[in-house]
Every structure is written in structure tokens, then in C-alpha cells.
Amino acid sequence: MSADLALYEQLNKELVSLVDHFSNLVKATREGLEADDSAGSAAAAARSERRVPGELLEVVVEKVLAAGHRCIHTVSQLKKYAMVSDFTTLMGNVHAVQQRLTSDTFHTTRGLEHIKRDAESLLSELEQHYYSSANKGPLPNQEAEAQAGKLAELCAQALQMTGG
Questions:
Q1: Which DSSP symbol is given to 85?
Q2: Could you give the 3-state DSSP secondary structure of residue 38?
Q3: Using CA atoms, how far apart are residues 29 and 66, in angstroms rounded to an integer?
Q4: Rounded CA gap, 77 and 87, in Å?
Q5: Residue 140 C-beta-side C-alpha neighbours within 13 Å
Q6: What is the DSSP letter of 42?
Q7: CB–CB of 29/57 below 8 Å?
Q8: pTM greater than the 0.90 cutoff
Q9: Which residues, in sequence order, are CB contacts of 138 under 8 Å at separation 6+?
Q10: Cβ–Cβ < 8 Å for 21, 60
Q11: Alpha-carbon span 82 to 11, nearest angstrom
């Protein structure tokens, strides 16, 4: 974050410099216009003879342009830093979500295993109570044997009736 803060401070200084150079350009332009208006005075003529016409304006314009380019460069650096910082933050968030999902998956799996063990023990207990109950039907093996025995009796009775 300190690099980001340094870039913002640098941009602030460059913007102040840009404003100063622009105000100097406005002053120089105003002085040039006043000199043209008062061309009859001897002091204005002496002043304009000492400097090359347009030299000051060109120098100030170059300073304004240079300050503008520096501001654009600093803004570009800030944008790059923001994109990299945002990408880093995004990747950190993705990593945190992945860890959270992995943890949730682990806890869910453990919870389901616990539910499975509980269901198995409850079913086992229910089965034991059912087969030990006085109101139960015959055990599955005993019931099949009983039905087979009844079927054999019915077949025997049917054979006797038919005369065989």
C-alpha cells in the first residue's frame, strides 16, 4: 500500500506543478497582450526588444506539456498497480474460497459418516428388537420352511383326492 500512497503523492505534486505552469502560461499570455496594447510606451518597447517574441510562451507551453505527460505516466502506473493489486486480491479471495469449500466438504463428509453410523446402529437395534419381540412373525428362514411344509401338505392332499 505504501507504493500506492507514494504514487498518489507523486501525482498530487505533478498536478500542482501542472497548475503552476498553466497559471504561468496565462500570466505570460496576459503580459504579451498588455505589451501589444501599450506598444506606444517606451518601457514596453524596451521590454519587447530584450526578449525574443514568443520565446517565453513556448518555454511555458513546453513545461505545461511536460507536466501533463508526467501526470499521464503516473496515472498509468497507478492503473497498472491497481490492476495487479486487484488481481492479487482476487486470487487471494479465490484461494480463501477454495480452502473454505475444502473445509466444508471435509466437515460435511464427516457429518454424513456420523449419520451413516448412527443409522446403521439404529437399524441394527431395531432389527434386534423386532426379532426378540413376542409379537413378531416367524423368522424369514422359518417362514420359508413353514410355507414349504404347507405346500407339501397341499400337494399330498391333492394327490390323494385324485386317486394317486
A1: H
A2: coil
A3: 19
A4: 15
A5: 2
A6: H
A7: yes
A8: no
A9: 146
A10: yes
A11: 15
pLDDT digits 0-9 by tens, 12-58: 999 999 999 888 888 888 776 666 666 555 555 555 444 444 557 88
Is residue 75 within 8 A of residue 18, CB to CB? The reply is no
Low-confidence ranges of the chain (pLDDT < 70): 1, 32-55, 134-142, 163-164
CA angle 62–66–69, rounded 5-degree value = 140
| Separation in Å, CA 96 to CA 100, 104, 135 | 6, 12, 58
Cβ atoms of residues 61 and 25 within 8 Å: yes
State the Cα–Cα distance between residues 39 and 55, nearest whole angstrom.
18
Domain ranges of the chain: 2-95
